[in-house]
Design goal:
By secondary structure, the protein is of the alpha/beta class. 32% of the residues lie in helices and 24% in strands.
Length: 459
């Protein structure tokens, strides 16, 4: 037997430990792990001596080709490939059709899924979708079993913005989603608090970057998380809290998770583990996102809660905007979100392992294994034989400063500019080499839509 590829000489990183071994790939699948002498001959041999061999990152929170991001699936997936991300999950909006038609009263979740699948035809990595409810239309409840048949097993709701929905309707969705064992994905900020503070800042002319994080305080995030979690637990609905930024919110999640371990999961994002609100003084509005960057103590809190399991996942909340869209005169005229896909794995590894002393396995669990498990992708986020050969060869010691000059994203900046991090050497998706030594070599359209299962969450 001759297999397609053998990666040899590296250290394999799994969430439960490391192994110095070779890994054999054939027909898109990992077929064996062991000593090189025990594995079949290969058409291609990759020498990973001195490097880490990791499952590809699974980013379950990205925004592509819609009102939240200029990035197409082509540009974003190329950025992801260079950064070691092999699967991502975007959002299929119930009520979004075009820049001028956010609130189309006739648009359905199923149509939203079809729109995003059409947009994703040039992706070079695998992708999936969360459904996203953006208006209080009872007919959407009838769509929930239909989207499950399409492989979409999670539904997102907002408590803020003009497309946020009321607690009353969120409560209805929780009750219906529980009956189908869907995962409810929640953006939690107490909208009225943020709106009142914002209006006060407008009256006072406080449009400088330093005022933005004060307009969306940590307690507003925690309050909304508490309300949403309480409703979800009353409905016996599975709850996933996205982009947790602060100690106050993580503490709320921990309280509910301790009592409802099989019903509560949550994430933070790379930026909330490495950056704080002092960055606004340094680079202006480039890091403006909602919720905002917090304080250094909140960075510490993210690692504390990642370590003890309150937070399962590190995602990016990637949004592709340009510098001129971000750097506006008054912060309220700017755009929310920052680009992170190309940098997330190297930056988080640098912070977690080199600066804070966590293991490489910790990184793999938060970036790959846990997100795949939480969202029903058993063939992703692992190096186990029989699963998809989504593999990253990463050199943590070959460090270079981050620069936006080689961005594959449409964003022309990086909030991590100048940080020296390790380098992704090679990225494979289902056995195919799609990024090699800083160059994208995968073919447009290679990525496939991933129909997800109803996930199994341990007790």
């Amino acid at each position: 037997m001759v297999v397609n590829t053998v990666i040899t000489g590296g250290t394999l990183i799994q969430p439960d430990g490391t192994l110095d071994a070779s890994i054999a790939i054939d027909d898109g699948t990992i077929v064996a792990i062991g000593e090189r002498s025990d594995l079949p001959d290969a058409e291609t041999t990759v020498d990973a001596t001195g490097q880490l061999v990791m499952p590809g990152a699974v980013d379950v929170h990205v925004h592509l080709d819609d009102m939240f991001s200029n990035d197409t699936y082509g540009t974003a997936s190329r950025a992801a490939a260079l950064g070691g991300t092999t699967t991502f999950i975007d959002f299929a909006w119930q009520a979004w059709v075009s820049e001028s038609s956010i609130f189309d009263e006739e648009s359905t979740l199923l149509e939203g899924i079809e729109r995003k699948q059409a947009k994703a035809e040039d992706s070079i990595i695998d992708y999936s979708l969360h459904g996203a409810i953006t208006r209080e239309d009872p007919e959407v409840l009838d769509e929930l079993p239909k989207i499950i048949k399409e492989g979409v097993t999670s539904i997102k709701m907002f408590t803020a913005y003009e497309f946020g929905i009321s607690n009353g309707f969120i409560n209805e969705v929780f009750q219906e989603a529980a009956g189908h064992d869907l995962v409810a994905v929640l953006h939690t900020e107490e909208s009225s608090i943020c709106e009142v503070i914002t209006e006060a800042q407008k009256r006072q002319g406080k449009g400088d970057p330093e005022y933005y994080p004060k307009a969306r305080p940590d307690y507003a995030e925690a309050m909304a998380a508490d309300s949403a979690l309480r409703m979800a637990m009353e409905a016996d609905c599975r709850y996933y809290g996205i982009h947790t930024t602060c100690r106050k919110s993580a503490d709320v999640i921990e309280e509910y998770r301790n009592e409802n371990h099989d019903r509560v999961r949550a994430e933070t994002c790379t930026q909330y583990t490495v950056a704080d609100d002092s960055l606004f003084d340094e680079v202006g509005l480039l890091p403006m996102a909602a919720p905002p960057l917090r304080k250094p103590d909140d960075n510490d809190a993210m690692f504390e809660h990642l370590s003890k399991g309150t937070l399962d996942v590190v995602s990016t909340d990637h949004c592709g905007y340009t510098r001129d869209q971000k750097q506006v005169e008054n912060w309220w005229d700017g755009t929310y979100g920052m680009n992170s896909l190309q940098r997330s794995l190297p930056v988080f590894y640098d912070e977690a392992v080199k600066k804070r002393g966590f293991s490489p396995s910790f990184v793999v669990s938060k970036l790959a294994a846990n997100p795949a498990r939480v969202f029903g992708m058993p063939n992703k986020g692992t190096l186990d034989p029989g699963t998809d050969a989504d593999i990253v060869v990463f050199d943590p010691d070959s460090t270079e400063p981050i620069t936006s000059d080689n961005n594959e994203s449409m964003s022309d900046y990086s909030v991590y500019e100048g940080r020296e991090v390790g380098q992704v050497d090679k990225t494979f998706v289902r056995g195919e080499l799609i990024a090699d030594d800083g160059d994208v070599v995968g073919e447009s359209g290679y990525g496939e839509f991933l129909e997800r299962e109803i996930p199994e969450w341990e007790q």
